[in-house]
Amino acid sequence: MVTGCPSGLAPSEAPSLSDPSAFVRRVDGQNRLSLTVRGAKCGACINRIESAVKTLPGMESARLNLSTGDLEVGWRGSLKAPTIVTAVAELGYGVSPRDQDQGASDEQREERSLLIALGVAGFAMANIMLLSVSIWAGVGEMGETTRTMLHGLSGVIALPAIIFSGRVFFVSAWNVLKRGHANMDVPISLALVIAFCVSVSETLRGGADAYFDASVMLLFFLLIGRFLEARVRRKAHASARDLAAMAHRTVMRLGPNGKASSVRASEISPGDQILLAPGERAVVDIQIDRGISDIDESLVTGESLARRAIPGMHLLAGTVNLSQPLTGTALAAASDSLLADIARMLEAGEQRRSTYRRIADRAVSLYVPFVHTSALLAFIGWLLAGMGVNEALLIGVSTLIITCPCALALAAPVTQVVAAGRLFRSGTFLKSGDALERIAQCDYIIFDKTGTLTLGTPKLSGQISPEALQAAAELARASRHPLSRAIVEAAGAGPVASDAREFAGLGLEGIVHGAPARLGSAEWVSVDSGQSDRSSLWFSQAGKTPVHFQFQDHVLNDAATTIGRLQKAGYGVEIVSGDRSETVESVAQTLKVDHWSAAASPRDKVNRLEELQAQGHKVLMVGDGLNDAGALALAHASLAPGGAMDVSQSASDAIYSGGLAALPRLISVAKQARSVMIENFAFAAAYNVIAVPIAITGHATPLVAAVAMSASSILVSLNALRLNAMRETL
Q1: Do the Cβ atoms of 229 and 256 come closer than 8 Å?
Q2: Cβ distance 375 to 397 under 8 Å?
Q3: Do 407 and 713 form a contact (C-beta atoms < 8 A)?
Q4: What is the spatial distance between Cα 106 and Cα 122, in angstroms, rounded to a whole number?
Q5: 420-424, Cβ contacts within 8 angstroms, sequence gap of 24 or more
Q6: For residue 570, is pLDDT > 90?
């Protein structure tokens, strides 16, 4: 048998085999198809699906993204799309042409279905436990008739609960068994069914022990895990869909006669003429042909200051046009733009993280045959020794229950829950299940600058007279330029200059207090400053001396202290920013960081990260922008501040608030959690070494096995709770 993950699909979610040929597209002579796969939950699923598809004739590429469920395939020749869909469906997975809206609704239905199943199991568990307590309390005094009646009531409650709530595991186990595979849902289903059947047998013959409570309780706690997994997966998919939506907005395309028409970004081809209106974001890469305007590239480069765009300049997808219309030529299709490249880097990061899933898969492949073999050998062995079928079956069930690796399975998750709760109370939210382990392993930290080490928005610096500030603010209120916004923020509410007009790349002019005035570059106000400075403005008014306004993106208050603590603890620290060289150098000097680089594109950041990883470093990436998303996804571990973009938060392992002081705290808790996990694993292993022989030799009834299994889980949980009392070590 081959072990792996189930499809876990309800009958209503059976594989869709409708003809997907209409969704095939031709790109560079290759047939391409985007499919949505439902039920893939681990690295083994990725390998099985990709391997099956790649064996088809003419297939050149097949790649499954586990987080989004998107399967991208490319082939040449006469291969038909339905053949590809069938190849995946025959493995037991749901598959259909990609439909983002349908995908979202499917995930919501799955989550709602799991929540209902969880509620039913919880209700049944509570009521059966009340009856079980009555039985336990009456041991030695309760008559056989009363005990049998209470067992019967428990069975009546448990049967519909197990059938309804357990279908998540039963359907999954059946889907893989009928195709010759196995997964963790197989022993779970066996334990539920056998424990219930044995309990019915015990009840019918008036036996003292029944295990309806253990069956339903096991089902309840397993469903909690499935529900939480489904919710995390849906949120991850939602962020991926948001990024896809950003790359598929409408674009204003100019026809041969100059007539403008709105089209989907996916319809744009290289060479098309594009009109970019003020306030609009470019969704394809553009070469500017006509127009001069201010542009905001903070999404792309992290640069907080606006830049002047002129004919001949290359505009990357994600850039916002601030002031004047621009006309340009599309340089690439939307699928080849910067946004699409970032999406591919996010996907590559997801594939790389599957290393940890493969470790879990290997554990599953060892556990499944071990459990089945132990229980079966115990049953057969006692039959051969002359024991009755019912008694031998009870020993087999006891072995199946006592070998259930609850303590082993809880060793890491319960520690993560306690650590996550401690971090959450201090303003840090963990998004990834194995984030703590990977954060604890990191030895090198890369910081983005803007929005991570600095505020991310320019602030007015220096001393300016109140009269000059208020006069300049009257012009600044007529502009969306970031430096104008900084003046307005410093001055507060007030009037707007009359006849105010803005000239792209230069500044504003208008009438202030009855006199002509200008606000903008030194050239615009006729001041010989000797240099071009994008971080300053000049204000001039007839008969008055020009006033120089300077701006800075201030370093966060706790940045220097945090960087110092990390360096003292032995971490390598580096700044990699898309901002200008002089700005990055200034911040690096302020924070005493020796290694830094500027003007880094999203690809440059990924290349630097991969270079460090090739040197043996495990890199922790800290960033907040779309231009950081690729590096965040590919880093060994990654963090994003609470004000980061949704896509960056989705690509990261944790989101922090309250400043950079959260980083040393997070690293300290991660290292402590790793130590507790190791202790828990050692205890769980010792428990199995002791408990399995006891069950196999017939010294543990199913009830004793369930109690032992629960006790081991409780001890693991209590050990994890020690995390709340530990002090920070960094």
Answers
A1: no
A2: yes
A3: yes
A4: 24
A5: 421/724, 422/669, 422/723, 422/724, 423/654, 423/665, 423/666, 423/669
A6: yes
Q: Are 448 and 628 in contact (CB under 8 A)?
A: yes
Give the whole-angstrom CA distance, residue 572 versus residue 568.
Answer: 10
User: Cβ(623)–Cβ(640) under 8 Å?
Assistant: yes
- For residue 420, the SS3 value is helix
Tell me phi and psi for residue 15, to 5 degrees. Answer: -50, 135
Residue 690, both tokens: 């002791």
What DSSP element (H or E) covers 262? strand 260-264
- Torsion sign over Cα 692, 695, 696, 699: positive
Tell me: pLDDT of 13 over 50: no
Residue of higher predicted confidence among 386 and 163 = 163
pLDDT tens-place string over residues 606-627: 899 999 999 999 999 999 877 7
Sign of CA dihedral 494, 499, 501, 506: negative
Three-state DSSP string of 569-581:
CCCEEEEECCCCH
The β-bridge partners of 3 are: 182
3-class state of residue 168 by DSSP: helix
The full 3-state SS of 557-601, as one line of letters, equals CCHHHHHHHHHHCCCEEEEECCCCHHHHHHHHHHHCCCEEECCCC
Q: Do residues 345 and 609 lie in contact, with contact meaning Cβ atoms separated by under 8 Å?
A: no
Residues 6+ apart with CB under 8 A from 12: none
Tell me which residue of 99, 98, 101 sits closest to 88, measured CA to CA.
Answer: 98
CA distance 557 to 547: 29
pLDDT per residue as tens digits for the range 658-703: 889 999 999 999 999 889 888 887 887 787 778 778 888 877 765 5
Lowest pLDDT segment from 366-380, 498-512, 661-675? 366-380
Cα–Cα distance measured from residue 472 to residue 466, given in angstroms and rounded to the nearest whole number: 10
DSSP E strands, 6-120:
25-27, 30-38, 59-65, 70-75, 94-97
Who's near 655: CB < 8 A, 6+ residues apart? Answer: 428, 429, 431, 639, 640, 641, 642, 644, 649
3-state secondary structure of 66: coil
Catalytic residues: 448
3-state SS class at 194: helix
Are 236 and 346 contacting, i.e. CB atoms less than 8 angstroms apart? no
Record the pTM: 0.59
Distance between CA 374 and CA 371 in Å, rounded?
5
Crossing angle for the helix pair 338-384 and 185-204, nearest 10 degrees?
40
Residue 640 has pLDDT above 70, yes or no: yes
Q: Side chain identity at 526, as an amino acid letter? A: S
Rg of the chain taking only CA atoms, in angstroms? 32
What value does the mean pLDDT of the chain take? 79
What's the pLDDT at 343? Answer: 59
Which has more confidence, 283 or 304? 283
Output the six-digit token pair for 538. 């000049």
Instruction: State the number of CA atoms in the 13 A half-sphere of 524 facing the CB.
Output: 24
313 burial via Cβ count (<10 Å: 0-12, 13-18, 19+): middle
DSSP run (H or E) holding 328? strand 326-330
Task: Supply 120's token pair.
Answer: 């039913």
User: In terms of residues, how long is the chain?
Assistant: 730
CA distances to 518, 590, 658 from 556, rounded to whole Å, are 33, 11, 11
Residue 550 — φ and ψ, nearest 5°? Answer: -115, 150
Would you say 701 and 402 are in contact if contact means Cβ atoms under 8 Å apart? no
Ramachandran angles phi, psi of 328, nearest 5°: -150, 175
